[in-house]
Design goal:
The protein is α+β, with helices and mostly antiparallel strands. Helix content is 60%, strand content 14%. It has a five-stranded mixed sheet. A two-stranded antiparallel ribbon has the order 1-3. It is found in: Cell membrane.
């Protein structure tokens, strides 16, 4: 109603000005013979104006409702908003904008698919020379420089995997398979893959898992998640420290707890570590952080229905908890 009154305020003002002018004009020239004629004139003109405004209001009511309370979904703008010429023009404008929007979305989706294909192709192309280098390493294991080359190859592979998983995260629903996974097997698999990194950094992995814990998740994606968290724990720990991995049950959940004795995360950074490209104070100090690893970890857990929690204290260490709801 406010929009309607605002639109026709000028019309109402002109009407009343014209009404007063005619009333005074006809009264001065003797046009009204009695008080009854004056009231009749007032009634007729007011009735005509009121009827016209009521007609216009109800004809454009849908349009005013949409303008006053915009819909939450863009498809809702495509509904019928009235028969008035202005309403029809506005409806056509919404349809044109929706068509342009859909065109932009399709172009974006096409570019995303092209980017994904490129990233997958590029990563697999990069893995070929890495495999060749690994064969050369095996043939020259006695050389003193081989250890350093192997460490750098491991770093390259880790970064390539991060790039590959980041490229696939937007198409996550097409690239995951929920199955029954033994967390004990998963954790030991990750720890064994990282044994050279533990040895190089002189960090002891303390695994406290006495039995199997079965959960519903995707093995490949969760392997990346746990791998990324442990890699971070190693990266930000000094020599002769330990990284402990524990699995336990609490209430209706199975929890993977990864605790390090590293530099910890400042309170100003702890709420933002899962944001994309956010490196924080530690990333600037250590200089190797891309800010994407924990973002992918957070997104994967969210999309698989798991929770991830973080506790940290500067110079004392960090605790990551990945929480899996028990399936029934």
């Amino acid at each position: 109603m406010k929009l309607f009154l605002r639109e026709y305020l000028g019309f109402i003002c002109i009407y009343f000005f014209n009404f007063i002018f005619l009333l005074i004009f006809y009264n001065n020239i003797g046009g009204f013979e009695s008080i009854t004629n004056i009231f009749y004139f007032i009634f007729i003109t007011t009735f005509i104006m009121t009827g016209y405004l009521i007609y216009k209001y109800y004809k454009n009511k849908k349009m005013y409702c949409i303008l006053n309370n915009p819909p939450d979904q863009i498809e809702e703008y495509l509904c019928d908003i009235g028969n008035d010429s202005n309403a029809q023009q506005l409806e056509n404008l919404f349809k044109k904008q929706y068509s342009l929007y859909q065109g932009e979305i399709q172009n974006y989706v096409k570019k995303q698919k092209q980017h994904l294909v490129f990233m997958n192709h590029w990563v697999h192309q990069m893995k070929t020379p890495i495999s060749v280098i690994q064969l050369i390493i095996q043939e020259n294991e006695d050389e003193p420089y081989i250890i350093n080359i192997r460490d750098e190859i491991d770093r390259i592979q880790n970064n390539l995997n991060t790039a590959l998983y980041l490229a696939r995260i937007d198409n996550f629903e097409h690239d995951f398979k929920v199955e029954t996974v033994d967390l004990k097997v998963l954790v030991f698999d990750v720890v064994n893959n990282l044994k050279r990194v533990f040895i190089k950094k002189h960090i002891y992995p303390e695994v406290k898992i006495k039995s199997s814990f079965f959960v519903q998740t995707d093995f490949k994606w969760m392997k990346f998640v746990i791998h990324q968290v442990i890699i971070n724990a190693i990266k930000y720990s000094s020599e002769n420290k330990k990284v402990s991995i524990e699995i336990y049950e609490k209430y209706d959940s199975s929890i993977v707890k990864i605790k390090d004795e590293g530099v910890g995360i400042p309170k100003t950074d702890i709420k933002r570590v899962f944001e994309p490209s956010y490196t924080g104070e530690n990333g600037r100090v250590f200089g190797e952080s891309t800010g994407m690893g924990l973002y992918i970890v957070s997104e994967v857990c969210k999309r698989l229905g798991h929770k991830i929690e973080i506790e940290s204290e500067v110079n004392k260490g960090t605790i990551f908890k990945i929480i899996f709801k028990k399936f029934r």
